Amino acid sequence: MSVTIDTPVGLFDCDLLLGGSPGLEGKTSPDELRARLDSAGIGGGLVSSMRALLFDLTGGNDEVCALAEAYPECYPAGVLDLRDPVGAAAEIERLAENGVKAFRITPDAQRVPPTAPSLHYLASVLAERGLVALVEGDLRTLWQPFVGRDAKVVFLDARVDDLGDLLLLCRDEPGFHASTRMLTGVETLEKAVYRLGAERLLFGSAGPLYEVAPTALRLHCSGLGSSEVELIASENARRLLRP
């Protein structure tokens, strides 16, 4: 599976979820996911499985790989279980051999602290292979396992209040990036570009668990220049996923 991003509408979402969560309505099938992306003008993106996050790691990861066969514009992002570092390393090996280039890390959901040896170990495995880590949670504590490794990281929950800390990290870590999902407030996206540069931001929505359209609209209606919008919309993702 080769990754060549070609988004006809110019938006590639780094943070998509297939399936659903107990207690939440609207479990998303592959066809429903594609329809929701179309309605928001999103051409494709990195998709992780809620099934893998909640109860069936291998089956869920295989589910998003199968999705990519049906919808080539949707690229699988494997989920890792930090509580089983040896098994997670084997899952990285298995999926990477099939062309998967991004892996979702969820320390808070799995109740794994940033200081856990498993997190540092898997950060090193991903970095050594040149794979992208999609990291959920507070970047102010989750940055430590990835520094000094030339790691490719997208912090999915970066907020405007985190920009100062992220700026300091980005000075020494060219592979550190942030998703735009939490940057939908007034001028927050513009502030992020001013502080970090457009080359450090990837469009992300956490859809369809969250509404996709407002995040897309916020980018299109921003005061950013067209070249900055292109970088955030898809070009930065294309660069990160390049072999």
UniProtKB/TrEMBL annotation:
One Pfam family cited in the UniProt record for this chain: Amidohydro_2
Alphabetical UniProt keywords: Hydrolase
All copies of domain Amidohydrolase-related, residue ranges: 59-137
GO molecular function, a single term: hydrolase activity
Domain of life: Bacteria
InterPro entries membership: Amidohydro-rel, Metal_Hydrolase
Name of the protein this chain belongs to: Putative TIM-barrel fold metal-dependent hydrolase
Organism: Tamaricihabitans halophyticus
